[in-house]
Amino acid sequence: MEEKKMYRLGDIEEVIAEMDFSDTDDDIAEIDADLEFWISGWYVVIPSLGIHVREGVACTFDEEENMFMPDFDVTVVCEGEIASETWMYYEQDGILITLANWLNGRMPIDAIEKLECYIEIANVTN
User: Fold this and answer.
1) Would you say residue 123 has pLDDT above 80?
2) CA dist 87 to 4, 8, 19, 40, 67, Å?
3) Please, what is the end-to-end C-alpha distance for the chain in angstroms?
4) Global confidence as pTM
5) Total tally of structural domains belonging to the chain
6) E strand spans, 10-104
């Protein structure tokens, strides 16, 4: 089993920005008839919290174009395996702020920044 490269959560957004995910398939999740999330095929696992986070784009249905169009970025907090994950929270913000808001004051932001995490890629295009 390959050992995961660990990062500090405070550094992860910069690490992700420098990575190439062009061969990674995204997932589409229908929220309702007017809203879809296009969610990354990669995710950040935070073992100490038993969760993972995914980033994506919220797309709203455009009546004029008759299709879903990108509207805003979103970060999703999930638990469980990627194939059967449960979405617990989502927000229009980055990973750290989304986690801080989800934790609702149970952990200070400086402690969140120090949490260990690693990146997993679920969907790779060949």
Assistant:
1) no
2) 24, 23, 25, 14, 24
3) 22
4) 0.85
5) 1
6) 27-32, 35-39, 42-46, 51-62, 67-79, 86-91
